[in-house]
Structure formats: structure tokens, C-alpha cells
Write the C-alpha cells for this entry.
Amino acid sequence: MPAARHTAADLDTREEGEPQRAGIQSVEVGFELLEALSQAPGALMLRDLAAAAHMSAAKAHRYLVSFQRMGLVMQDPVSTRYDLGPAALRLGLASLARVDAVKLARERIDGLLTETGHTLAIAVWGNQGPTMVHWTEAPQTVPVTLRLGDVMPLLTSATGRCFAAFMGTEGRDAQRIAPMIRDELARLKKLPRNGNLPLADVPQSPRDVEELLNDIRRRGLARVVHSLLPGVGGFCAPVFDAQGRLALGIVVLGSVATLDTDWGGVPATALLRCTRQLSADLGHGPAMPRP
């Protein structure tokens, strides 16, 4: 008696009835090659691509033949190296066009609020500077006199420091921020020395500003303690888009009596983890600043 033959429809019906939603393993295996290409700094030889995808060169070649036909991969006829093809580019651009950075950030706020236990905010660059566009207060939080639409100072707020450090060190962004920093620095110098701002945390000269911003870039996020408001501390970490531009900043702030303002504390590390994942979701590469 001949063996029973299964059509594609039979297989699909059988797979749909399985409790763990069985997929197509060969698709998942082949995707490892595309993932390896997306993480590589440039085109790869077959042996290097196969090694990155943890498979033999012969097996990788079979997948690459199909991917070339689909336009997902292309091979340089001279160097024989493989790279992502035009179909992969179209998929990536279509995905990026559907991404709303602020909406994506707002979806992560509740989880971050649970993890940190402190008030969170989202800021974007507006016409006048870094502007608050979303605010979520933690239960039993100390009231902070900030509102949606408020523009944050560049040198005495974690939000402003984050934007000043990561919006770019050259080009149009730097040209726009530089005079704003000079004006704010001049205003800070006129404050009475017995005011509420502790001088240790506020830059007093262009050299102080440069050192502050370099430290922020090195750590990957900005911090203030008492600088914006007496008794209040906070962090702000950047979220980058696929072009490496600063898309927004996420802020965590609270009373210094309850907020851990240590660079290695829960608020800072949770915030960094969240913003780095958001940057990756927006298409930003792995070369992120590390604390």
C-alpha cells in the first residue's frame, strides 16, 4: 500500500492544530544569515558569514542562493562578498516609516515605572529646546512643579544636559545649541552665590560645560542632584533613531530622599536598559555609549 501523501494544506492544518504554533524551522535557520549580515560592518565572505550564522559554508550557500533570487541578499561579482540586498532595504524602510518614537516610548513607561518606582517623563527637541511631551507620576511621589510643554534648561536639568551632550557635536545641531549654552552660562554666573544651586553640580565656565558633556557621553546618560529644584534629583537617557540622531530623552526624577542618584543604582541602570532597547527598536546600531 503506497505511503500517504501530505499536501501543503494538510501540513498547514496539522501545524495550526499544534499547541505551540509550530513554525517553519528552515526559515528561522536562514534568518540567522540575514541577522549576521545586519550586524556586520560590511559585506562578508561566505566562510565568515557562515561562521557568524553558526552553520557550514555549504548549508549557508544554499540559503543564500534563494535569498539572492528574492533580493534579500546580493553578491559582489568581483569580491564575491555577500551583503543585504534591495528587498531587505525596502523592508527596513517600510518598518521605520511605521515607527513612532514617542508612541513606542510611552508603551514602555509603565514597565519602567514599576521597575524604578519614580516619576517618568519623555522629552523631545522643540522650537525653544528640550520640551516635555509626556508625564507619568509615580504613586506617593513628591510633587514637582513641571508641566507638559515646559522647556528645560540645558545646564541645570538632566533633560537639557542629555540633549546638549547627544544632539551632535558638529553641524546644524551644534550651531543651534552652542549659543543657547553661552546664554544660559552667562545667566548662571549672575546668580547669587548663596542661592539654591550648589556650585559643585553647575558648570561655571565653557571648560566646565565641555567636561560635563564629555562625562555624560561617556556614561551614556545625564544626571542632576538639586540643580534644577532643591531636593530633587533625576536622570535622562537618550533614545537614538536609525540615522543615529537623538529622537527623544526619557527622564526619571524624584526626591533625593527616596531616589537612588548613584550612577549604578536601579533608576539609572533600568533607564539605560530601556532606552538602549528603544534605540535598537528604532533601528539604531549596537554602538551605544556605555556607562
About this structure: Residues 171-189 form the longest helix (19 residues). The two ends are 68 Å apart (CA to CA). The first strand starts at residue 73 and ends at 75.
